[in-house]
Amino acid sequence: MLVCSKSRTSGSLKICSKSIIFEPDDAVKPILKILLKDCKGIGAVEERGHNPFTEASCLDKLGDQTAMVAAILQSRLARTCFDKNSFQHVTENPHMECVAEMVSPLVTNAGHVCITDCNLYFQPMNSYPVSFCGLEVFCTENDLCSDIYLKFYSTKERDELYYYIATFLENHIAECTAESYMLQWQRGHISNYQYLLHLNNLADRSVNDLSQYPVFPWVISDYSSTQLDLLNPASFRDLSKPIGALNTERLERLLERYRDMPEPHFMYGSHYSSPGYVLFYLVRVAPEHMLCLQNGRFDQADRMFNSVGETWKNCLEGGTDFKELIPEFYGSDSSFLKNLLGLNLGRRQGGGRVENVELPPWASDPDDFLEKMRLALECQYVSEHLHEWIDLIFGYKQRGSEAVAAHNVFHPFTYEGGVDCDSIEDPDQKIAMLTQILEFGQTPRQLFVTPHPQRITPRFHNLSATPSLSSMSPSMESFEDLTEESKKMAWSNMNKLALSSCLMLPDDKIVVCSSWDNNVYFYSIAYGRRQDTLMGHDDAVSHICWRDDKLYTASWDSTVKIWKCVADDISSNKRTQFDLLAEFEHEAGVNTLDLSPAGTLLATGTKEGTLTLWDIASPLPLNQLTCHSGKIHQVAFSPDSRHILSVGEDSCLVVTDVQTGMLIATVHAEQEQRCFCWDGNTVLSGGMSGDLSVWDLLSSKVIHKIPAHSGAVTCMWMNEQCSTIITGGVDKQIILWKPEY
């Protein structure tokens, strides 16, 4: 407590090596700082029967500042255990306690941590800084407490506390790795913003530590237009390059200096994230931190965060400015852009006062600016290129030869393990080195050592079509592209397979893929890995079908087999047993199959052009006829099960009567048709040229053609309502279509 002649103020008294600081509990009142050299003496005050402040009572007896600080520290260290009188409830049972430090921006307080069956406590004290490991505790939005960042002097104690939190508190902790978050992000389960927050957290970045504050990318490069065009690639920054490499002329100057520089080499004299850069952005909401960092002064007015456009320009052209952004630029709180506290931040050379941040012309106000920044971060262009920036900041281009090739080399002090501070014996040198590292900026911990896969994003074609029953246009609904990008997913060795056919099980948890390597593979979507393998054929598995918990497999070994899943839940992440129920033998390799809507009949097509109709309950064929002069690509029952349509290498569409086994119609196409959907009368087929054709079987004519793929259309699917169609082609594209009525 500070006692004056007419008033008293409660607060915290901090005695430092050169000054005394009194920080009032009331945040409105000013912080008092008194230099020790200006003090004539310090006396103890005893009031209302309280004991004197023992540390203060002997200060006037200490001749020098070093002895004074040592006495204070020694007194504080005498309290070596947690004061259990601070428990909120007398019934609380403590499980463990240890010494730790609580980290907040620019301040680290040593103290005792205690975990009980109800609460986690931190009790401050003074101590000497030693090596540490960390634990960050996050609170839910409904909790009254704030997140805390603790530093421990023992890994064992840190892990023990983590165990007690997970065991005794209700906040159950789910272990997540960079790879698991990567798969969630790839499939669109978490946003770009959420993924970057997770990566920063895994890389030891925290909003409680200004020296390791979360880093976010500049994504927009247009801060001068009146309208922001998120469909124009020119509106965006090149995410494959660090900030310092975006300007070619500046990069050449930096590389020239880099080549002439003695060891250790580095390209940039400053970092992309440091306490100074963080407070540059946050000075309007955290002025006390800036004043602490700048020795009680704000920076020069013209060097403040005055304008978003000016800041971006300086990052492109400045010789020492390579800073990225912070999460606040993609959040919902715009207060850091406004001088709501009425701070006197000085006047610029033009005479104007530093007030709110000047926004781009395309932003009507700070909230609109943040909304457009969020839209830009989540847009398709950024989603397709964000992995390139992740490679630079968290990935394989962060260090080594890949970093050199990407022009992404910073001072060795900025990298984890770049300096062995434990080998520095001189305390002053060690403190100087740590201070330099903290103030210069630190590179995040490396999370990936191989190229980061690209996000699976929708691919849409802009096609025109006239309104009619047969006209279609690509849908703009969200759709996961399971083509080229899927090969990059970390699903065991899935990227090494040649997929011949695939399907999704009804619960949307398992993908089943048949392969030319004779096997059928089951992939768990939740766990992102291969769950099971069915080895049931002697040659390539060409086609699969799933109906009523049964798997139908067609193979070039001239058989079709029906398998029954024995497990109660195939998606339970356990190995599944399949029993063979039936086997249908052919005279040639089977290339395709289809089940009737009722599930009682089976149609198969072979490599030699033979169509066979089977009763599921019998191993003998009902009807068999050679209807094509080459391989049959696809067969399908009509919705009423009265007819079967087949297409083959001979460029023919053939309709067969199910009951009699007779050919009803043969339509000759101009080119080979690879796949189709039909309703019994009208056919939508995909050809070798990549076009979609709509056929009227009664007139045997094409009534509409739709440009679709740049190569052969290889597969097609239509939902039961005929309202959605999906096509895939050799051009590695998947297109989602919606009929226009």
Q: What is the overall number of helices?
A: 13
> Considering DSSP H and I runs of 4 or more, what fraction of the residues is helical?
10-25%
Through-space gap between termini: 78 Å
The secondary-structure class comes to: alpha+beta
Unreliable spans are: 44-79, 459-497
Instruction: Record the strand order, biggest sheet.
Output: 8-7-6-10-9
Count of β-strands: 34
Strand content: 25-35%
Shape label: elongated
Gyration radius from CA atoms, angstroms: 35 Å
Mean pLDDT: 80
Largest sheet: 5 strands, antiparallel
Q: What structural keywords apply?
A:
about 750 residues; alpha+beta; about 20% helix; WD40_repeat_dom_sf; Neutral sphingomyelinase (N-SMase) activation associated factor; BEACH_Domain
What's the quick description here?
Residues 170-455 form the BEACH domain. With 741 residues, this protein is α+β, with helices and mostly antiparallel strands.
Structure commentary:
The chain has 741 residues and is of the alpha+beta class. Strand 1 (2-3) and strand 2 (8-9) form a beta hairpin. Helix 4 (178-186) runs antiparallel to helix 5 (192-202). The longest helix has 14 residues, at 155-168.
